[in-house]
Amino acid sequence: PAPLDSRIHQARPHPGQLAAAAMMRQLLADSEIRESHREGDPRVQDAYSLRCAPQVFGAVADAIRFARETVTVELNASTDNPLVFPGGDVISGGNFHGQPVAQALDFLATALTTLQAIAERRVERLVNPDLSQGLPAFLTADPGLSSGYMMVQISAASLVAESRTLAMPASIGSIPTDANQEDFVPMGMAAAYKAQRILANAQRVIAAELLCASQGLEFLAPLRPGRGVEALYRRLRGLVPRVAPLDADRPPAPDLERLARAVAAGELDPGAEW
């Protein structure tokens, strides 16, 4: 697709964006589904949640890399007070202050909220027949009689709403303590707690997108997706316990939880194919 053209991304060479676009080109290579839309498709351009995916994925990846680098420095740093140096110098300072990590975790929280928010928008495009370009309503063969994956989108929207509330930075919320001696504190534990919760939400929203996307592929057969997407689809369907195609209404929670665990464990990492 044109939005993945490498020249576009070389013109704005953020590292994450370049990597995301390259991975998406690999995922979609030789897609018969893509080829089927070359003629007769009324759309001039795709919606942002599709067309701008490399830019958003890239920004998220860069934020994750920044958080990882910050935490790596911190884990290998001396944060005691005072510090004792060779020669016997004992110097009191402030290396214990957790602002670098707290800010990095807040940045991570906003990035993960962004990731799940754009994923939820694509879930909506999969289950909504006004947006899905031919897929049945809620990805069920019996729309109107069956709920299909209606509740999957509702659940994803609920998780995103919670994450948006949690994404308010903790590191700007200092409250003085210790008779105002500790008059500016980073609130790093709150930042860590919120980031952990937002990460769990993100894993479930990504699971929702994977669940709906794999079901969408069932309706597009015999057209084949891109090589990378097809390999990912096979891995998803090969999970144990099995995440089977939806042929009749059933509670989606077990499938969502299985996929969320797979996402967390890296079992569905698209980069594992290359």
Could you provide a short overview of the structure?
This protein has 274 residues and is an all-alpha fold. The protein has a single domain, classed as Fumarase C, Chain A, domain 2. Helix content is 56%, strand content 1%.
What does this molecule look like?
The structure is a single chain. The protein is mainly alpha-helical and 274 residues long. It has one domain (2-273): Fumarase C, Chain A, domain 2, CATH 1.20.200.10. It has ten helices and two strands; from the N terminus they run αααααββααααα. The protein has helices at 6-10, 15-28, 32-35, 48-51, 53-75, 99-127, 150-166, 188-220, 227-237, 253-265, and strands spanning 83-84, 90-91. The chain has a two-stranded antiparallel ribbon with strand order 1-2. β1 (83-84) and β2 (90-91) form a beta hairpin. The longest helix is centred in the C-terminal third of the chain and has 33 residues, at 188-220. The radius of gyration is 22 Å and the shape is elongated. It starts with 5 loop residues before the first helix and ends in a 9-residue tail after the last helix. The mean pLDDT is 96.
